[in-house]
């Protein structure tokens, strides 16, 4: 009886130690398992990315990588926008396997304006209308085959669409 | 109440072109009203287009999208007479859904 009684706490301690080790391993794995999960959860609203002030920070928060300039991203925006509240902007690409298109306005209070998910079978082309606070660069980012490509164009704004 | 979403989806055989216009203030949170008080942000955050049980397009929007937003895209497939389901949800949790027939 006594031997089993002595042995019991020992096994319990072992179990506890074991559990601790499992928890540690779990924590160690977290940074690796997090990034693919982040990319896979593509239906979630990217709150953090929309909060970023600069275009570079927003792209980083959204995709976790930086974009390279590419002439395969086509950005259609007016030279001069008379009304910054409604600026027609469209983005398309000739790149294969496009999964996402985002549009940023560099000097808006928050750079990221819109981000579109392009499932397989949907054409890599989108048109929308955005607000621009002042004359600045509009940046189009296209994610294709897991890589980021971008192009930008300056749009002159005569009347800003963000102030009041 | 009439739907806030107006959609035109036209099939050209191979692809379907979708244009949507939504009634929404899209307040950015940076504009002041007549009294000089800031109008709190109120904007659509997500807009989805569903065809044949699958998402064909998903938009994540910030407050920089213009008032009464407009968006245009195309997807492969889509038959005349089939349904296209469109829904949005805004930052206050309000939402709307409509179904349009592909023409």
> Judging from the principal axes of the Cα atoms, what is the shape of chain A?
globular
Strand-residue proportion of chain A? 35-45%
Estimated structural class of chain B = mainly beta
Biggest sheet statistics of chain A:
6 strands, mixed
- Determine the CATH topology of chain B: Immunoglobulin-like
Describe the structure.
The complex is a heterodimer of chains A (164) and B (103). Chain A has 164 residues and is α+β, with helices and mostly antiparallel strands. Chain A has one domain: SoxY domain (Immunoglobulin-like, Sandwich), CATH 2.60.40.2470. Chain A has helices at 2-40, 47-51, 55-63, and strands spanning 68-69, 73-76, 80-83, 87-93, 98-105, 112-117, 125-130, 136-144, 147-159. In chain A, the strands form two sheets. In chain A, strands 1, 3, 5, 6, 8 and 9 form a six-stranded mixed beta sheet that branches. In chain A, strand 5 and strand 6 (112-117) form a beta hairpin. Chain A is globular, with a radius of gyration of 24 Å. Chain A starts with a helix and ends in a 5-residue tail after the last strand. The model of chain A is unreliable at 21-41 (pLDDT under 50). With 103 residues, chain B is an all-beta fold. Chain B has a single domain (5-101), classed as Immunoglobulin-like. Chain B has no helices and seven strands. Chain B has strands at residues 5-11, 15-22, 44-51, 54-61, 70-76, 83-90, 95-101. The two termini of chain B are 24 Å apart. Chains A and B meet through strand 6 and strand 7 of A and strand 4 and strand 5 of B.
């Amino acid at each position: 009886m006594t031997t089993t009684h002595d042995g019991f706490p020992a096994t319990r301690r072992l179990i506890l130690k074991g559990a601790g080790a499992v928890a540690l391993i779990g924590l160690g794995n977290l940074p690796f398992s997090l990034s693919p999960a982040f990319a896979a959860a593509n239906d979630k609203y990217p709150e953090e990315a929309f909060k970023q002030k600069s275009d570079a920070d927003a792209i980083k928060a959204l995709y976790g990588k930086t974009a390279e300039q590419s002439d395969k991203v086509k950005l259609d925006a007016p030279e001069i926008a008379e009304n910054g509240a409604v600026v027609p902007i469209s983005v398309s690409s000739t790149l294969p396997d496009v999964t996402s298109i985002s549009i940023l306005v560099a000097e808006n209070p928050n750079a990221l304006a819109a981000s579109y998910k392009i499932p397989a079978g949907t054409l890599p082309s989108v048109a929308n209308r955005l607000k621009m606070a002042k004359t600045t660069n509009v940046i189009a980012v296209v994610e294709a085959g897991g890589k980021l490509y971008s192009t930008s164009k300056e749009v002159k704004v005569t009347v800003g669409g963000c102030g009041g | 109440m009439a739907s806030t979403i107006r959609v035109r989806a036209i099939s050209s055989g191979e692809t379907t072109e979708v244009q949507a216009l939504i009634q929404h203030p899209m307040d950015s949170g940076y504009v002041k009203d007549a009294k000089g008080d800031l109008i709190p942000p109120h904007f659509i955050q997500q807009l989805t287009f569903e065809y044949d049980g699958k998402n064909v397009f998903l938009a994540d929007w910030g407050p920089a999208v213009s008032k009464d937003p407009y968006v245009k895209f195309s997807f492969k497939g889509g038959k005349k007479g089939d349904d296209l389901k469109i829904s949005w949800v805004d930052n206050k949790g309000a939402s709307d859904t409509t179904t349009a027939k592909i023409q």
